[in-house]
Every structure is written in structure tokens, then in C-alpha cells.
Specification:
Distance between the termini: 102 Å
Structural class: alpha+beta
Number of strands: 11
CATH class: Mainly Beta
CATH architecture: Sandwich
Number of helices: 1
Helix content: 10-25%
CATH topology: Immunoglobulin-like
Strand content: 25-35%
Length: 188
């Protein structure tokens, strides 16, 4: 007789345990965790670029003792996306002003190379660096564009005009003269 009683007690205990677990499970259905937060930070770096339409400007034939030595024009697009500053300036410069263009031992200095933009007047590349851009005696500011919060994101396209002014310059040696005009923008 004890066996059926033990079985009945074991069955009752199992039933009680099952009911206890079921009520605990039902109590957890509406349970929620704490609210965790994650801060997201994304940075857009300021940018400043200059893009020429072509990599080479040419002058078909040098005419001595003349300023009618125009190179082919180059379009320059200056783009900026800034967070501060009051102006964007475009500077043209030669790394070695004494020999801006060379043909072997023959040289044409930057003082005889002139530049301008958008058909305006010409000026020689003889200025100082601007905002750390350029070199003393071989630089020329091509433009200065005022900027403020309203136009911190903008661009402009200008036509760079360059020429050799050889008025009073000694006769040039025949051959190909080459040089590199650096064009760089700076924010001030």
C-alpha cells in the first residue's frame, strides 16, 4: 500500500512543481530590461581641393622681346567644405623662382612668367608665400574669396591665363622650355 501512496505523493509533488514553474513563467512575460544608450559621433573633415581641367599648358612658339607669349588656358575648380575661416585664396607658385622654365642650361625666371584669371590683368610670379603656400619671390595670389558660415561649402571655376613677358629679356635659346607651376589653395 505504500507504493501507491508514494506514487500519489510523487505525482502531487510533480504537479505542484509544474504549477509553480508555470506561474513563474507567466509572471516573466511582461518583464523588460533597463534602457541602454549608445552615443553616435560622426565627423566630416574639412576639405579644400584644386582641380585643373588639363595637366599641361602649351605655348607653340616663343617670341623674343615680346609679351605676346600666351600659354593655352587652364580651367581651375577650387572646392571647399569648411568649418571656419574668413577667406579662400588661390596661389600659383614656382618652387625655384630663378629657373621657373628651363631648357638645359637656359632658364626663364618666374619674374618673366605672368599669370591672371578670367581674362583679367597679368602679374608676375614674384610675390611672397601666402598663408604658408608658395615661396618667396616666386608666388602670385590668383584670387581671394571671402567665406563665412553661409558659404563654407562652395566651389568656383576660374580660367588661369599665363604668359611669358620677354620684353627686354635676352634672346632665348631654341628648344623646349619646361617648368612646373604649382597651384594651391589656402584658408585664412
Amino acid at each position: 500500500m505504500q507504493r501507491p501512496l508514494n506514487r500519489a505523493l510523487a505525482g502531487a509533488a510533480a504537479l505542484a512543481l509544474a504549477l509553480a514553474l508555470a506561474s513563474t513563467a507567466e509572471a516573466q512575460v511582461g518583464l523588460t530590461s533597463n534602457t541602454a544608450t549608445v552615443t553616435l559621433n560622426a565627423t566630416k573633415l574639412a576639405t579644400l581641393t584644386v582641380s585643373p581641367s588639363v595637366g599641361t599648358a602649351t605655348l607653340a612658339s616663343i617670341t623674343d622681346n615680346s609679351n605676346a607669349n600666351a600659354f593655352s588656358n587652364v580651367s581651375l575648380t577650387t572646392s571647399w567644405n569648411l568649418t571656419a575661416g574668413t577667406s579662400v585664396r588661390l596661389i600659383g607658385w614656382f618652387a625655384t623662382p630663378a629657373s621657373a622654365l628651363t631648357n638645359g642650361a637656359a632658364v626663364i625666371p618666374s619674374a618673366n612668367v605672368e599669370g591672371g584669371i578670367n581674362g583679367g590683368g597679368f602679374s608676375p610670379f614674384t610675390g611672397a608665400a601666402v598663408g604658408g603656400v608658395g615661396v618667396a619671390g616666386g608666388s602670385l595670389q590668383l584670387f581671394s574669396q571671402a567665406v563665412a558660415a553661409a558659404n563654407y561649402f562652395n566651389n568656383r571655376t576660374d580660367v588661369l591665363n599665363t604668359r611669358l613677358n620677354l620684353v627686354g629679356f635676352p634672346t632665348t635659346t631654341a628648344g623646349l622650355y619646361t617648368g612646373t607651376l604649382n597651384v594651391q589653395a589656402v584658408v585664412q
